[in-house]
Amino acid sequence: MSKLSFDQIFMNLAGDLAKRSHCVKAQVGAVLTKDTRIISVGYNGPPAGTHNCDEEWPETGCPRDARGSCSLALHAEENTILYAVKNGAKLEGATMYTTLSPCLPCARLIYSAGITKVYYEHSYAQYKGLPSDEGVDFLNRFGVEAVRFEPDGDVVTS
Fold first, then answer.
1. Is 88 helix (H, G, I), strand (E, B) or coil?
2. Backbone φ, ψ for residue 148 (5° rounding)
3. Mean predicted confidence (pLDDT) in 37-61
4. pLDDT tens across 87-144, in order?
5. DSSP 19
6. Residue 37: exposed, middle, or buried by beta-carbon count in 10 A (0-12, 13-18, 19+)?
7. Catalytic residues
8. What does UniProt give as the signal peptide span (predicted)?
């Protein structure tokens, strides 16, 4: 009998969480773990108690900010970290699983929170049409291992 690895289970959960997102542009999920235990989960979208973009603006999504990004949404990584901190979790040495590689601002937050490893499934740079994954580059440069995770459980270095 073969069993899924914890890495695969957590990445599967991140994918399932992404389906909870109310964003009409992209659905992203994240799971934060430590020692094979889940610390926090989250997905992208507006702060609780504000708006659900797919209900309020089903055709266009929420209004855009000056840089063309969602004006209301928190990224999945932000939501996951904020919920963990709000509930007193210790993030030092934690691992994050996310369906989309972290953008640069989320990478800075991940680094500052003490998270030491990030697995991601899809490239933020490819999604946004950017030349490189700045967030992944930042994390790896400053000692946070950020690696692409393939659905069969293998880690890919590119």
1. coil
2. -75, 135
3. 87
4. 999 999 999 999 999 999 999 999 999 999 999 999 988 888 888 999 999 999 999 9
5. T
6. exposed
7. 77
8. none
